[in-house]
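Course exercise 7: structure representation. Students receive a sequence record and must write out the corresponding structure in token form. The form below is the worked example handed out in class, using SDR family oxidoreductase (276 residues). Read each field label carefully; the graders check that inputs and outputs are placed in the correct fields and that the protein name is recorded exactly as given.

STUDENT ID: A-19
EXERCISE PROTEIN: SDR family oxidoreductase
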Amino acid sequence: MTGKLEGKVALVSGSGRGIGRSIALKLASEGAKLVINDLDQEPADETIALIREMGGQAVACVGNVTHSDFAERFVGTAIQEFKGLDIIINNAGYTWDNVIQKMTDEQWYAILDCHLTAPFRILRAAQPVIKALSKAEMDAGQRVMRKVVNISSVAGLFGNAGQTNYSTAKAGITGLTMTLAKEWGRMNVNVNCVAFGLIKTRLTNSTAAGETAHIEGRDIKVGVNPGLMAAMEQTIPLGRGGTPDEAAGAVYLFCQPESDYISGQTLMCTGGLTGV
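STUDENT ANSWER:
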């Protein structure tokens, strides 16, 4: 590994499993110190153990990203434990699908709160910290670049039937990305977005497995019909869904120094799929 992120402090929401865990492991492998988040303690601890096995440093901030006190705790953990904040990855999320005439207000707001309001709150909480750090560095004649990577989806770029809530939230995150790229540029912060296509995680496993996600007292079914999954993969030029490690690689592109002059952009990580 290159150690390109040596000493950097990174927040990764939803990093107890799946894509988030792969992102955290990738950043740690390049030298970053991690604040790991999950709804549950056990998966967060598992990710931390993997990071420590490779000689890295990580701590947990367990909790629901939609809770009003979470953002301050998340940012505060980075400052308290590692005395800095350099990278923010807004990754936490899930889907709760329905066609619009059957979608309840509860479904609508649950997904918007997770995928759009939570990243907004985390970034709002981080702003005073980043501003103070940046000012001190500039006063000392230093230019230290910081990175924000928000996670969107091809559903947010092109829409997806049955996902009014999710598509709307993911479209919103691209607007948030472009706006903060303009607001935070003078603080030497790159703000970018990665829009994933089909990435294989437990959320896309076969529905026959009967998996659920337990969120706020609700057991939400996760998974994709095997026939639909096969049809989806046929539309991808590379002929397959991506892996969490491949998804993490796309995020890492925006975290390394080579991306220091790239901001306000959305990168599609889709295996060549350019529309839905």
